[in-house]
Structure formats: C-alpha cells, structure tokens
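Researcher: Please predict.
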Amino acid sequence: MLWGYAQKVVILYLEHPIIIYFFVFDVIAVSNLGIQFGKRVLFQDVNMKFTPGNCYGIIGANGAGKSTLMRMLSGQLSPTHGTISQGPGERMSVLEQDHFKFDDFTVMDTVLQGHTVLWDIMKEKDALYAKPDFSDADGIRASELEEKFAELEGWNAESDAAALLSGLGIKEDKHYTLMRDMSGNEKVRVLLAKALFGNPDNLLLDEPTNDLDLDTVAWLEDYLSKFENTVLVVSHDRHFLDSVCTHTLDIDYNKVSLFAGNYSFWYESSQLALRQQQQQNKKAEEKRKELLEFIQRFSANVAKSKQTTSRKKMLEKLNIEEIQPSSRRYPGIIFTPDREPGNKILEVHGLTAVSDDGTLLFSDVNFQVEKDDKIAFLSHDPRAMTALFEIINGNRKPQQGSYDWGQTITTAYLPLDNSDFFRTDLNLVDWLCQFSDDSSEIYLKGFLGKMLFSGEEVLKKASVLSGGEKMRCMIARMMLRNANTMVLDSPTNHLDLESIQAFNNTLRAFKGNILLSSHDHEFIQTVCNRIIELTPNGIIDKRMDYDDYITDERVAAARERLYNLNN
C-alpha cells in the first residue's frame, strides 16, 4: 500500500492544462543531526528517514541519548546542528512524561486532547454555542467547524477514546473522573491512551510499558502490530520490542545506526560479531560464512509479526559488514550455590493475605515446590505476589496459614521495595560488607566490579544511587549469599537492557530453584517451567511455559471463574 498524499501541479501549456500528481510519502526525515552538551558529544551526523508501516526500537546504554533523541524528534529539544522534518499536515503524538499536567481535566477530556486539531474544534464549537448573542457570523463559523468536525469523525471520538481506555485497563466508571483523583498507575495508562488517540501519523513512545501488567502489555503489542503509521519507541522490555519492531535504532560509539530486524536479532548478531572479533586467527571468509548462516537462520525464525515477510526479506538483503560488536558493558551476574537443594524445597499450607486497605489478595493457598522448579507467580493484583514473597521470607505475617522451607534450602531475596537498604551514609564497599562473611576490600570490590562499579565509584554513598545502581547492588548482595533458591519480586525494575539480558542469561542456567514475579514476558518465558496464578478465590497451578499458559483455553476459563467468583 502507498502511504502519503498526492500533490497536484497544473501546468498551463497553450490552451490545454496538464495535471500532474506527485506522490509525496509521509516520513520523518533527519538530516546531519547532532547534539552535544558542553564538550560531551552524544551523537552526530545522523541521516535517516522513518517511514509509515514501520516501528523503530531505539536502544542504547544508559546515558547514550535515547530519550534525548526522542525529545529532539518531538520538538521539545533543539539539536546542536542538523534538521528534523515531517510531511506537511502530519500529526505527531508523544507519550507525556508529566503525570500531573492534566489534573484539572477528566480522563475522557485528557484522551481527547491527544488529537489537538479535533480538540480545538470541539472547544471553539462549545464556546460559540454558549454565546448568548449568537450572530449570523457565528452561525457561518459554526457550520464550518461542524464540517471539519465531521471530516475528523468527531462524532465517534468519545467512543474511540473509551475503547482505548478500556483496552488499557481503565474501566468505564472512571472515564469521567478527574485525573487528579486517579492513581499514578492509572494516569500512565490514560496518558498512553492520549498518545494513541486519533491515529497519529507519527507516534513517539518513551517507555510505554512502564507500570503496565502483562495483559495490558499484550494488548498494546497487538495494537501497535496493527498500527499502519510510523512508530518510534524506547523500551527495556525485550519481548515488547521483538513483538512490535521492524527496525532497531542503536545509539553506540556516539553514532546512531539503523538495522533491519528486532532487538533479538540485533543482540544475537552483535554477540556473534564480538565472538568473531575475539577469535583473531579466524579467516575472514570463515567469519563471513558464519554471519551469513546466522542471518539465514534468523530469517527463517523471525517472531510472529505483521512484518514477518518484509522483515525476512530485509534480513536476507542485509549487508553483513553492518554487523558490528557492541560497545555495551554487561554486568557479570554469577550465582554459585554452596550446596545442592534436597528433596524438600518449600511447602505452603492455607496461606491467606489481605492488603492494608482490606482487599483480599489471595486465600487458602496451597502448593509444594519441587526440585528444579522455576515458578512464575502471577496475579491481576501485583500486591499479591509481593505479599506472598514477604510472607515466605519472614517479613510479613499472613492472615492465615503457614509455610515450611526444607533444611537444605538457602534463599536470596530481591524485594520489590529496596529503599530501607539504602538509608545509610555508607559507601558501596562498606555497604556490601554488611552482607559478607569476608570483609576484605579486594573481595568486595570484586563483586562490585562485576556489577560495573569501578574506580572511585565504589566509594559513592549508597544513599545517592540511582534506581538501576541500587538494583545492581542488591544483585551483588544476592551473589554473596551463594543460595540455592532465588526469590525475585520484579527483578527487571530499574535495570537497563544490558543488565536485564545478563540477569536473564544467568537465571536460565541456574541449577537451583527460582520463585519470581515479573512484568517481563521474555524473563518468564525463558526462565520458568511452572506458573502459579494467585487469585482471591484460589490458585491456578500449571507446569507449562508462559506462552502456553496465556493461550490455554482451560486456563482462560479458570481465570475467568476465579476472578469473577464474588461478582
């Protein structure tokens, strides 16, 4: 399908005019783009076009300039040099990052403002019809506005907005609630609906899956896979990037490079290139053959997507010289259990938990963890998993029930909220020393080094760390435990793609038991072999991988029954 508009030019030649149509395709065009802050250059000499029907996933290490690029594309930040343009009359929509900007508006009006042209027409119409001295000129203007309103399908605007809100988990009884009365999690969803509303020509999404549950992320993946215009997205969710992206935009070496294919293709190809770089004695022709075989293999196994066919063709045409090793640094996450777990791991009997506001999170939960189980815990209410993990780690008392760990079991717990661990003036070496039997500085610096803290960084105060740095410290603390059972509550929170990938690779190879909750589809799918879903009315317990779980009709029927039992 051709995307764009026809520009008509009439050429007068003698008495007979000739009409010629030039097709101008809708694109975002970037020319000689560069930006620097002081002497620090993020990237420069960027020249590329983003075209309709494609989704571009922007990746790069923390601080590489992903969000900076998005802000420049949206016009919120001026480049140091170069230009950015889009087709005449094109509408760009951006996921808002200010969660308080629309507090004085209803949820519905917030979403409608996503289409600024339509919103302005609606406001002008309302103002005209409210005038006590409505004149003939007002009538003519109102007629013009009604025509534009109809052209933009304004009569369907509220129903379209309502459909987006419902798809993103905002129930109908909240559609006319003031934004200030919505929770932070709900505001994120409303602002995402605002960005999607009105079928924008160009859609810019910076971390759109943050604070979304797995079901809502799946809805968004499906929505974007059918979206026919141009999308640029920054995300740390690898499954999301793989599901929606046709191209990968990599910010590395102070350059922005565009590759055909999704995140997995970029990661696997860059790792292959790195291995080849390390094999200096390998002949160039052997390397070329290995890369070609990789491209052909990946082309035959591309992820399910509306772009499967075109992506395969793009990969087959890919110049193998474009495949380069990444400069990314991956943390060295290594878990080495001191002992093998015995036959008894964990037994849970009749556990019931209620939240602080009186909500029943789960009731009469019974299960037994078997050797080699790697269990993902799910729930519509994420507080349920946190409550369970806090209970079995001795940090919270249940309303009812008990649990019993086996005598051979040692656990390492990664809690959802780690703020209490960092209310201290200790530097990182002294902070980590609290959790170690070996207090030697060299030993502790070794663990911090594995988590990418080097040089003077190890003397930073623990209290001033970023969210991602705190998570890396907590992982270092877990490594010191040499545990044979991992309990992980949302382990990918605050981590960059490199840390998530390293963590994921380590857990796939871990020989002990794992109990985790996560919003990361790829994490669950590649690590876990058993799913337990907690509901207020019982549990669903299945030995299967996550992809099979979410497509199993019997599971779907059980979920529907258990979640609606009290309705």
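Model: Residues 1-24, 303-312 have pLDDT under 50 and may be disordered.
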